[in-house]
TrEMBL record:
Family: Belongs to the leucine-binding protein family.
Keywords associated with the record: Amino-acid transport, Signal, Transport
SUPFAM superfamilies tied to this protein: Periplasmic binding protein-like I (SSF53822)
Name of the protein this chain belongs to: Leucine-binding protein domain-containing protein
Transmembrane segments: none
Pfam families according to UniProt: Peripla_BP_6
Organism encoding this protein: Methylobacterium crusticola
InterPro entries for the chain: BCAA_transport, Leu-bd, Peripla_BP_I
Residue ranges annotated for the Leucine-binding protein domain, each copy included: 28-365
Signal sequence, start to end: 1-24
Length: 402
C-alpha cells in the first residue's frame, strides 16, 4: 500500500509538473507582411516567408526550447490593409515582431502602429529614408537598404561617369518620391542638373508617354525611381523606344536580382545598380543561397529576402540573450551586439534604427559573360558600411543625441 501511495504521488507530481515544463518554453510570434501577388511579390512575397522559416530553423537547431510561429499576409500595397493586419496580429495573435513590409507608405503606417502597441518592426522591403530620419522610432529597425544608400551608390556612380543631366520617371508614392529626392541631391551636389521628372501610378502598364517626355528632355540619364514590375516594364519599353540608341543611359535606381531574371541579360545588360546582397559574393552567401533555392522553386534570393533572414536571426539571438521579449530591452541588445550571419556578415544597429553593412555597386553582365543561371552581376565596387548609409547626425532623427 505504501508503494502504491508513493507511485500515485509521483504520477500526480508528474502531471502537475507538465504544464510548468511547457510554460518554460519560449514562444515567439513573427509576422511577415508584404505584397504576395502584385508588383513587388517576386522581390519579397513568399520568398520572404521562406527566409523567415530558415532563420527560425537555424536558430531552433541550437535552441530547441523555442516555439516560433510565423504568420504571413498580403498587404496589397495598401496602408489601411497593412495597418489592419498588424493590429489584428497584435491584438489576437500576440505578435512580437513584424518583418519585411515593402512599399513605403504601408511601412510608415505599420511604423506608427508598432510604436503605439510597443512591438517591433524589422523592415527589409521598404526604402524611404525617412524611416530612420525625422520619422525615426525606437520600435523600428531599417535593415537592408534605403533611398539614401541607393542614391549615393547608383546615382553617385552615374554622375561620376559623366551622367550630369537627369530626367526621372518616378512611381507616385512615398518610396519613389524619396528616391527621386535623394538622387537629385546627389546629382546637384556633384554639379549636375535635373531637367525634369514625371510621376506614374503604381503597377502601370503603359510607360510610353513617360518615356517620350524623358527622350524630349535630352537628359544624359533617365533615372527610374520605381521598383518591381514597374521597373521591369519601364526598362522593357525603354528598349522598344530605343532610349539607349538615342544616347541616353538608363539608371535603375532600385533593381533586384528578380528583376534582372525577369528581364533577361539581353535587355538588362549594362545596367548599373546598388544592392546590399548578392548570392555569389562569397562562400557563405553561396551556401546560404543554395539552401534557399532548394526551399523556394530553385530561385536565388533577393536582398530583401536575405534581409528578412538576417534581421529575424539577430532578433531571436537578442531574445535568447535577455530571456525576455520586452521590445525596448531587445532593441537595446540588438544595438549592443553586432549581427553576424552568412548573408551580410557583420552588421550594426545605430541609434536611429538604421542597420549598417557594406553596399555593393554591380553592373549586369552581357549574355556571353554569364556562366549559367542566376550569374548576372559583375562587382564594380564595395561601399564600406561607414560610407554606405546617411551619416547618423544628418538624418534629423530625434533619437540621436545632439
Amino acid at each position: 500500500m505504501q508503494g502504491l501511495k508513493l507511485g500515485c504521488a509521483a504520477l500526480l507530481a508528474a502531471l502537475l509538473g507538465a504544464p510548468a515544463a511547457a510554460e518554460a518554453r519560449t514562444a515567439v510570434t513573427v509576422g511577415v507582411l508584404n505584397d504576395r501577388a502584385g508588383p513587388y511579390s517576386d522581390l519579397a512575397g513568399e520568398g520572404s516567408v521562406v527566409a523567415a522559416e530558415m532563420a527560425a530553423a537555424d536558430f531552433k537547431a541550437q535552441n530547441p526550447d523555442y516555439d516560433i510561429r510565423i504568420l504571413s499576409a498580403d498587404h496589397q500595397n495598401k496602408p489601411d490593409v497593412g495597418a489592419g493586419v498588424v493590429r489584428q496580429w497584435i491584438d489576437q495573435d500576440g505578435l512580437d515582431v513584424v518583418l519585411d513590409v515593402p512599399f513605403s507608405s504601408v511601412a510608415l503606417a505599420v511604423h506608427q502602429i508598432v510604436r503605439e502597441k510597443n512591438r517591433l518592426m524589422i523592415n527589409s522591403g521598404a526604402g524611404a529614408s525617412e524611416i530612420t530620419g525625422a520619422l525615426c522610432s525606437p520600435n523600428t529597425l531599417h535593415w537592408t537598404y534605403d533611398t539614401w544608400a541607393l542614391a549615393n551608390g547608383t546615382g553617385g556612380a552615374m554622375v561620376r561617369s559623366g551622367g550630369d543631366t537627369w530626367f526621372f520617371i518616378t512611381a507616385d508614392y512615398a518610396f519613389g518620391k524619396a528616391l527621386e529626392r535623394d538622387v537629385s541631391e546627389v546629382v546637384l551636389g556633384n554639379g549636375g542638373k535635373v531637367l525634369g521628372s514625371v510621376k506614374h501610378p503604381v503597377a502601370a502598364t503603359d510607360y510610353s508617354s513617360f518615356l517620350i517626355q524623358a527622350q524630349a528632355s535630352r537628359a544624359k540619364v533617365v533615372g527610374l525611381a520605381n521598383a518591381g514590375s514597374d521597373t521591369i516594364n519601364t526598362i522593357k519599353q525603354a528598349a522598344e523606344f530605343g532610349v539607349a540608341e538615342g544616347g541616353q543611359r538608363l539608371a535603375g535606381l532600385l533593381v533586384f536580382l528578380s528583376d534582372v531574371h525577369s528581364l533577361g541579360l539581353k535587355v538588362a545588360q549594362g545596367l548599373v545598380l546598388t544592392e546590399a546582397f548578392y548570392w555569389d559574393l562569397n562562400d557563405a552567401t553561396r551556401a546560404w543561397s543554395r539552401r534557399f533555392a532548394e526551399r523556394y522553386k530553385g530561385r536565388m534570393p533577393t536582398m530583401v529576402q536575405a534581409g528578412v533572414y538576417s534581421g529575424m536571426l539577430h532578433y531571436l539571438k537578442a531574445v535568447k540573450a535577455l530571456g525576455s521579449k520586452d521590445t525596448a530591452r531587445v532593441v537595446a541588445e540588438m544595438r549592443r551586439v553586432p549581427a553576424e550571419d552568412p548573408v551580410f556578415g557583420r552588421s550594426e544597429v545605430r541609434a536611429d534604427g538604421r542597420v549598417t553593412h557594406p553596399m555593393y555597386l554591380f553592373e549586369v553582365k552581357k549574355p556571353a559573360e554569364s556562366r549559367g543561371p542566376w550569374d548576372y552581376y559583375r562587382l564594380v565596387s564595395t561601399i564600406p558600411a561607414d560610407q554606405a548609409f546617411r551619416p547618423l547626425a544628418a538624418g534629423n532623427c530625434p533619437l540621436v543625441p545632439r
